[in-house]
Amino acid sequence: MYIKNITAKDVGEYRCKIENICKIAAVSTAVYLKEDGTLGLQPDNKSLTGDETLHLIIKIVIPIVAAIIIFIVIAICRCCYKRCKKKKSRRQSQTDRIKYSQCSG
After folding, report:
1. 76: in domain
2. Whole-prediction pTM value?
3. How many domains does the chain have?
């Protein structure tokens, strides 16, 4: 940010905020009147806002939660498949026993 032909009317705080999907950055500076009557510029050392941290957390947490949900769904499906396979196997062995007992009896 450039301020040309700065005067006493320009005294105050100036803030520049840049935001995109991943990050929010903000820089501010203060124009002030020095004791000798000249104008001074005091940059603010803060360059990041709390919003940036929130965006970063969301960017990291959402994929982790999604991966956990997918893992749970896969585990449930696998369990159901194994149970169905066991039940089918039990039914088959019961059917075989019934057929065998009928044949031998």
Report:
1. no
2. 0.40
3. 1
